[in-house]
Amino acid sequence: xxxxxxxxxxxxxxxxxGADPSWQESSLFAWYDKDVGVGGFxxxxxxxxxxxxxxxxxxxxxxxxRFRSNVTGVPMSPGDRGETHMGWxxxxxxxxxxxxxxxxxxxxxxxxxFEDFHPRYDYAALSxxxxxxxxxxxxxxxxxxxxxxxxxxxxxxxxxxxGYRDRSWGPRHWGLLRGTxxxxxxxxxxxxxxxxxxxxxxxxxGNFGYVLRNGEAITVVRSEILVTLESDAVSPxxxxxxxxxxxxxxxxxxxxxxxxxxxHVRGYTAVESIGIARLGDRVAMSLLEVSTNPAGGSSPPVxxxxxxxxxxxxxxxxxx
Length: 320
Known about the structure:
eight-stranded antiparallel barrel; AttH-like fold; 13-stranded antiparallel β-sheet; mainly beta; 320 residues; single chain
């Protein structure tokens, strides 16, 4: 417990790349407004050494409207990267000095701003774990609030959502990952929880996390993340997290999906399942990211029952 060193605002702006062709820089935002029933996700990864990028952007409404755009390994344009911004063409832009994101697709628009609830903590320091250099050499994560408006089809919706974001830069070897569970839960300015578990190609297993409660950082020393999958073998339906803190306190968190968005980048597939999490009488915005790939495949899924795997505007069949 106690104070954890944090990064200043310069950590949010694009960094000078190293010489490694696998060097990449990513920006991720996720949000869910349970009152109006709309959620979204955007992960942008730029690879400036090889001048390529990866982007997964998606939004949904609780009543079944969806939008997804996913590209991987596409060429970067000169305007995609600047001193304070990252983006993809005319479609997507993140002004990282102001934490504003904009989307401009024919069937989907967004004008959103993220407000941090706490300082930019270095994730490795917060969870008291050494960084996995090949996966996330530098990494910060922040809980907060996302406000603004979005348009899906002809429906415009005002957004006032709890959210989560991260930034990462350094070498990224996607083929090392055989399984991941990445799970932030944001209950409000006073409470957020993060759990992480991964399996690497060499058999290495990691399992850790943190709780931020009333400004105090508490390390998770043991966690168990149990996920129920649809019969497509990739889409999370629900989840349970059982964690033990360094104080000896135990917590149990339950996840309920509202919808999911398939991220496919450089042969790595994960489902970004967005909904709510419950801890006692508290309700959180939650993103349960799940990748299940024990055999090391690299093709995108052909069918997903509980997540959007299409391109463009669509409507979900059946309940979430």
